[in-house]
Amino acid sequence: MYAAVDLGSNSFRFSIGSHDGDAIRVLKSVREPIRLAAGLDADGNLTPDAMARALACLHSFAVTLAGYELEAVRVVATSTMRQANNIATFLPQAEAAIGYPIEIISGEEEGRLIYMGVANALAQPAERRLVVDIGGGSTELILGRGGDIERVESFSVGSVRQSLSFFIGGRIDGPSFEAAILSARSIFEDGAPPYHPQFWRRAYGSSGTIRAIADVIDKNGLDKGCPARGVTPASLEALKARFVGIGHVSRIDIPGLRPDRAGTIVGGLAILIGVMHELGIEAIEPIEAGLRMGVMWDLYQRSMRRDRRDESVRAFAQKFGVDTVRAARVADDAAALLEQLRPGGDAAGRLLRWSALLHELGMAVSQTGYHKHTAYIIENADLPGFTTREQKTMSRLALAQKGNLRKVEEFLADGDFARAVVALRLAIVFMHARIDVATAAPRLRMKNRIELELAREWVADHPTLSYWIEKEQEHWDEVGVDLAVRIG
User: Which residues form the Ppx/GppA phosphatase C-terminal domain (predicted)?
Assistant: First the structure.
């Protein structure tokens, strides 16, 4: 069984599912309307009240998750946590509350996971489709064919923010709706052309907002005279007119709409009207799949050794013209050296391997200081499957691959990170000295100091090796670590 936890801008949710044939069967789903986006103050900080609500919810989720035998759990956070200025203070508390690491994913990664969930639910390998997901803090547009994503973009407009900005105090009127729609259209205007109908056959709405809107339209008979499948601009206009007639969020009480959604559905409706008009969408079909389903599929594929991160690294190396033979050699040697150092878990080895495979990509920018360019590119690149935290760690490893270690000194307190740095730097030294580590790996240990034992013939046959090892000793000495070398 797998668990996917989605810490969204409007609601916190989790789903537990198991792989069953060609599908993931959902066994349990829980949703709590936390309204995190509404808890951002004027300075962009989460308020104490918003953090308290979130932590209480996460404690509750932890209790429920503990009742299942789970193979893997992944917790992802989206727009509001990406934007909160005090996230560094809140995140450790949130992780302690739920008992798992929390990955703050980019809008593009959010879109990819959403599409993965939709594509696997539809199982139509040749269909060209557009997926629209309106969240509490952002909206994602994803264009794809079957299981392949061709384009993904995240727009900083969501149902919570739109509701708070244009329906002040909960009041609903015609001018407010038109202003909210116009605002949404202006956000999608520049990015719209690649998503126009000539590039896809069917459009799907994957978010709870779009499903809720479709439910209300269906249960209130607002789609009469609309022959197309799904939600149409005409049915959206009919729902807008119904809300304007009601006049205030507090008075919304109509079939198909849960009371806790009333406060944000007007903003979501304005966005959906805006995106359909701007993109020229004639009908959009709601689908019961999205981010959490995509996360569970991603967990399943990782368990089957089909990790999207491997594909991302291969594609990125090809894009930047990396010498894959050299890179693979460094990766293999670094893995062999790290194994001797006995890291605390598998994560260090995976991040080290990916960092090693990309360690020279900065050469596409400049031969001088390429490690700095590599570090910058890895941290800021769009690498599908990777979290922001993983990319930052890989970036630091790339930066630490050569030169002084003062630039990463504060991170060397993490034992696994320090071990990975030792393994990567030595693997690069041995690669330059043309020493075949796979044939006769040097003995390496690391406790209070680094202990390296080299074969005497290595030193004799490779004159530059002594020079590079001496430089390594100097660099480690600068950060208070003794590198002891023995020639055997």
Answer: 309-472
- Report whether 290 contacts 118 (CB < 8 A): yes
DSSP 361: G
Local structure of residue 359 (DSSP, 8 states):
T
Q: Are 33 and 56 in contact (CB under 8 A)?
A: no
Q: Report how far residue 5's alpha carbon sits from residue 12's, in angstroms, rounded to the nearest whole number.
A: 8
Every domain of the chain and the residues it spans: 2-105, 108-290, 307-441
Q: Which residues pair with 128 in a beta bridge?
A: 145
Tokens of 377: 């590119």
Q: What is the mean pLDDT of each run of 10 residues along the chain (488 residues)?
A: 93 91 87 89 92 96 93 92 92 94 89 92 89 92 91 90 91 94 93 91 91 90 71 92 92 84 90 95 91 91 82 91 92 92 85 95 89 94 84 95 93 92 93 76 86 83 85 93 87
Chain centroid, CA 1 distance in Å: 21
Question: CATH homologous superfamily of domain 2-105?
Answer: ATPase, nucleotide binding domain (3.30.420.40)
Provide the 8-state DSSP code for 463: H
Q: What kind of fold does domain 108-290 have according to CATH?
A: Nucleotidyltransferase; domain 5 (3.30.420)
